[in-house]
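Pasting as-is:
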Amino acid sequence: MSIRTQDLRKVYGTVNALDGLTLQVEPGTVFGFLGPNGAGKSTTIRLLTGLAHPTSGKAWVAGEDIAHLDRVTSRIGYLPEEPAFYTWMTPPEFLDHVGRVFGIPAGLRTSRAKELLEKVGLGSVAKRRIGGFSRGMRQRLGLAQALMNQPDVLLLDEPVSALDPAGRKEMLELIRSLRGQCTVFMSTHILADVERVCDSVGIIDHGRLLVEAPQQELTDRFTLPAFEVEVENGAEAPFQAWAHDLRSLPWVTAVALDGRTARVTVNDLQAAHQSLLAEVVRCGLPLRRYEVVTPSLEDVFLKIVGQEG
């Protein structure tokens, strides 16, 4: 396993920031560590990088016990949520400094820095001082420095939080391209980002791991099939009556109304395919849209965290 923790705990005063975390991350995968703000995501990464020490429990990164920090640091890359830099340097100078820390030979440092700056979209601003960079540009440079030593394990704490939509898309594609080259452990509270790039997901809340599994397995395990039915203007009254009657059918689990749209959750997909549209036609509703809804990671997250709450 690239990352393994066993009953990992971290206590700050009376706060259990991490409460018995046990998880495993397969080599070469992109792992999404998902949870609300304050759930324990950043604390976990600080423990895995050696920036904090556990109150109890054990962890291994890249096959090394985190208790032996000198063996771990050369094999990991780390991007904090708000990376810090020597602001008087240019990006190549900063990456050269990082390369020196890792003992990378001079020629390789130069070529590696140039390659990474192009990869993260900073090649055109390589001569500018970092002090004039926006937060998004600093986030990109932070990813470049985290990759400078070609790590076995890359730990990312909210890696795209400062980026605009175009920048987020580019950065997520870059993270996805690392699959198979290294293990990526990505902490975030943005569900859509995890859904887009991650193979497996762990959901944490109040310092406790609620579930860990491949993304598709989570969706299959925690969500039920659903349909959305939308009617035309002027049909609200009969539509509400139809929705009320629909709830009594044995294959219907729930009906949620939002204006002229009903989300119908079912426990028998075959029965729904055979009968739902027929029910719409039988009631003479002017149909605008009818579709099968693909369950999302958001559905899974809200169900799991909601149950805990």
